[in-house]
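Predicting holo structure, NAP bound.
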Amino acid sequence: MQTPADMRGKTVLVTGATSGLGLATAEALAAQRARIILCARSPERGEAARARLLAAAGDAEVHVVLADLSSRAATLALVDEVLRSFDRLDVLINNAGVDVGRREVTADGLELTFAVNYVAPFLISNGLLELLRTSGRARILNVASTGHKAGKLEFDDLQSERRFSGQRAYNNSKLALVMFTYELARRLAGTGVTVNAVDPGFVRGTRIGGTLPLGYQIIGTIMRPFMAPVRKGADTIVWAASDPSLERTTGQYFKRRRAIPTESPTHDEHLARRLWKTTEALTAQ
Ligand SMILES: NC(=O)c1ccc[n+]([C@@H]2O[C@H](COP(=O)([O-])OP(=O)(O)OC[C@H]3O[C@@H](n4cnc5c(N)ncnc54)[C@H](OP(=O)(O)O)[C@@H]3O)[C@@H](O)[C@H]2O)c1
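Done. Tokens:
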């Protein structure tokens, strides 16, 4: 068994830390002595997660910050709160995600999956860049999914207005997230801030997809024995957040503790720049 990394003196922010992979990741990093900032949308669930981390590691330093990441204003308020309250940030883990059965529109007029899975990581990463930069060597991790392979960016229907399927929206949001990961890594080359995507594999025992139609629930139940337990799924996220050998590794897609190649269009720089510009326009005041 490998010795866990020592994260003493490091501050880690995990979004979606109240459940599933985010909670398991935060627990593991707290056990490695990192100062943890849990991002939650519900105060009760945030406090429950904090209590769980403290029960496992009583002397851990755990903070809760609140934001509904489907809202641009709430996401930017979260960024402000982190900038005001913390003097450093060594690792940002954009983990919060949804997979919904029905098309839902956020207060900002965006399709919910696109907003939470892709736009929120875009806003948080860009908003916290300066803090990450000034903390020395820092890491941004975006929790991706194999689903990105089936994704397609249709710029004339990014909000799935013409055609919606939950699976399609999820896959497209994760493709956008992987493309953003590579584009941000290119933009931050040489700054000391690395940006990588992490694919946890197919994981059982999390709450994602809980509102999908019955057919998906049945497939999920059939697939359960072939899915990894949460802690195993979180393992690569924890490794990518803390392993000293990855200090300078950037622009990669990790799965099972290995960097693996991804297919086009993830490496299409023209498309990535277009996506970035479009996202800036969508999130402009
Ligand atoms: N499970 C898998 O097989 C799998 C595979 C590949 C990738 N992933 C990715 O792994 C990440 C974590 O998923 P999971 O499986 O651990 O699911 P989960 O148990 O449902 O956890 C999702 C987390 O995101 C939070 N969240 C959802 N919507 C939010 C919002 N609007 N604002 C703030 N927080 C919000 C949830 O908060 P609440 O507690 O308040 O609901 C929860 O903490 C996701 O990005 C997912 O796409 C999962």
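The beta strands are 11-15, 35-40, 62-66, 91-94, 138-143, 193-199, 253-255, 258-259.
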